[in-house]
């Protein structure tokens, strides 16, 4: 198309994204156009059930940093948090580049609702509050390690634990339910589920009160 002077349109990029996914090379899709089209590719992957891995998320994060799209940077940071337990060196460099930037220093909300932040941390799990960037000013960026006791060598705080997010909790509960239904006590367990759902309904409670 480039040789023939044909300008690629949205359908072209979508088709190329599908081809990239079929080739099991989704990272290629993020090199097909500008930041807007890269996010269109990401949306198409989500709709198609293709889960973006670290290289794709890192590419989107880098595009967002370069494009100064602070909301998208926030989104990509937390998608990395949720799906990548230990980032690669290249991803770490992109993260550092963001936090050392002027955009990162000036983007935060100065007057936030402390109650909403606390509530978000409890609901979100993993320390994520979901309220966006909070506070302004330069970030202190550095690399550190955890010792065998789980103590950070930079701040001296001990890593205690991390909550699983609500989706993981729901998946875990669903897995337990499925496992229980496959056992010999399937009928009893299903009856218990029905009873539990009915007992929690307002109509059942009013009946019991009467």
From TrEMBL:
<keyword id="KW-0677">Repeat</keyword>
<dbReference type="InterPro" id="IPR011990">
    <property type="entry name" value="TPR-like_helical_dom_sf"/>
</dbReference>
<dbReference type="InterPro" id="IPR033443">
    <property type="entry name" value="PROP1-like_PPR_dom"/>
</dbReference>
<dbReference type="Pfam" id="PF17177">
    <property type="entry name" value="PPR_long"/>
</dbReference>
<feature type="domain" description="PROP1-like PPR">
    <location>
        <begin position="33"/>
        <end position="105"/>
    </location>
</feature>
<protein>
    <submittedName>
        <fullName>Proteinaceous RNase P 1, chloroplastic/mitochondrial</fullName>
    </submittedName>
</protein>
């Amino acid at each position: 198309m480039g040789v023939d002077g044909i300008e690629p349109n949205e359908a072209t990029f979508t088709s190329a994204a599908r081809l990239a996914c079929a080739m099991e090379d989704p990272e290629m899709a993020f090199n097909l156009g500008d930041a807007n089209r890269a996010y269109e590719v990401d949306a198409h992957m989500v709709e198609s059930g293709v889960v973006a891995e670290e290289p794709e998320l890192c590419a989107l994060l880098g595009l967002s940093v370069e494009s100064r799209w602070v909301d998208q940077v926030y989104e990509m940071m937390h998608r990395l948090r949720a799906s990548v337990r230990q980032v690669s060196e290249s991803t770490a460099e992109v993260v550092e580049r963001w936090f050392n930037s002027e955009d990162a220093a000036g983007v935060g909300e100065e007057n936030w609702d402390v109650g909403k932040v606390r509530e978000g941390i409890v609901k979100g799990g993993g320390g994520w509050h979901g309220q966006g960037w909070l506070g302004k000013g330069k970030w202190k960026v550095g690399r550190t390690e955890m010792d065998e006791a789980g103590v950070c060598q930079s701040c001296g705080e001990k890593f205690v634990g991390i909550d699983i997010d609500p989706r993981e909790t729901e998946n875990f509960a669903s897995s337990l339910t499925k496992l229980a239904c496959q056992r010999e006590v399937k009928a009893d367990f299903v009856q218990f589920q029905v009873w539990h759902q009915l007992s929690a309904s307002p109509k059942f409670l009013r009946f019991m009160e009467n």
